[in-house]
Amino acid sequence: MPGVAAISVEPIVDSHCHLDFDVFSDDLDEVVRRARSAGVCRMLTIGTRQSSFCKVLEIAERFEDVYCSVGVHPHQAEQEGLTEPDWLVEQAQHPKVVGIGESGLDYHYQHASVDAQKQNFQAHIRAAIATGLPLIVHSRDADADMADMLENASARDGAFNGVLHCFTGGPDLARRAVAIGFYVSLAGMITFKNAKDLRETVADVPVERLLTETDSPYLAPVPMRGKRNEPSFVRYTHAELAALRGLDNETFARLSTSNFLRLFSRIGRPAGFDEPVETP
To answer: How far is 191 from 251, CA to CA, in rounded Å?
Structure first.
């Protein structure tokens, strides 16, 4: 495999992937095996529809080191969108469900109306507050509305936390989200040559709020760009982000994995992560 990134002796995580997608149906066991061989100790496979959640949960139950979330993606807000949090809260009682989402706002594609997206997202915010589980946020070309919705909910209903997944937003959204307790997760785009603005924004995010992900099967990082993405490839994004923050792979691995386990506190901790990790 070309350009193999160094594998940290510390375990790393893929904080957002889609293992239920059909593209993984023929070789999922091998995909998980390759992730483990690459040092990935935890994978979080993400719910995007009510109608496919059973498959998401089955995968999380099948693999000890895979957990899942429950949610309805903004693209599905017209077809499967929620107006109340009840279904999410009910599904979140399962011990393998560790987050609410992904949900949010997508003004780039607008496969659903803005009103439907906001209504669906508000139900997810309410579910996150009700369950105490982190909210997994999809935000594209919607920085101002996203920051306003998160801030308003925090002011109205009390503190809650979550993550801006596959972050591509600007510095204002990152700053406002971090201020109310959110984390920022980076996918393969941070490795792309045209990601200068994104790298500048991420350079100012506190390192104790950074996560790494693949968003697989999408957005394979350099040098795997153009291929089907999978959890083992998170090591390339991890190495890029470590270098950006001036940290060696092992130090950033311990920090980012600790960040992930702090946020997704229902997930079992691997050996060696019983104590908090100090920021360098």
So the answer is: 19
Lowest-confidence region among 38-52, 122-136, 158-172, 264-278: 264-278
Q: How far apart are CA 68 and CA 15, in angstroms?
A: 10
> In the predicted model, is pLDDT for residue 4 greater than 70?
no
Instruction: Report the alpha-carbon distance of residue 238 to residue 170 in Å, rounded.
Output: 21
Proportion of the chain in helix, strand, coil states, percent, rounded to 5:
40, 15, 40
Name the burial class of residue 29, with classes exposed (0-12), middle (13-18) and buried (19+) by CB atoms within 10 angstroms of its CB. Answer: exposed
CA 228/CA 188 separation, integer angstroms:
12
Distance, in Å, from the CA atom of 31 to the CA atom of 26, rounded to the nearest integer, reads 10
- As a whole number, the mean pLDDT across the chain is 94
Residue 9 has pLDDT above 90, yes or no: no
> Which class for 212: exposed (0-12), middle (13-18), buried (19 or more C-beta within 10 A)?
buried
Question: Which distant-in-sequence residues (6+ apart) come within 8 Å of 212 by Cβ?
Answer: 12, 13, 14, 15, 185, 186, 187, 234, 237, 238, 241, 256
| Predicted model pTM | 0.95
Q: How confident is the model at residue 273 (pLDDT cuts 50, 70, 90)?
A: low
**pLDDT at 119 > cutoff 80:** yes
- Measure CA 215 to chain center: 7
What residues have CB less than 8 Å from 183, skipping those under 6 apart? 161, 162, 163, 164, 209, 210, 211, 259, 263
Burial of 203 from C-beta contacts in 10 A (0-12 / 13-18 / 19+): exposed
Rounded Cα gap, residues 7 and 12, in angstroms: 9
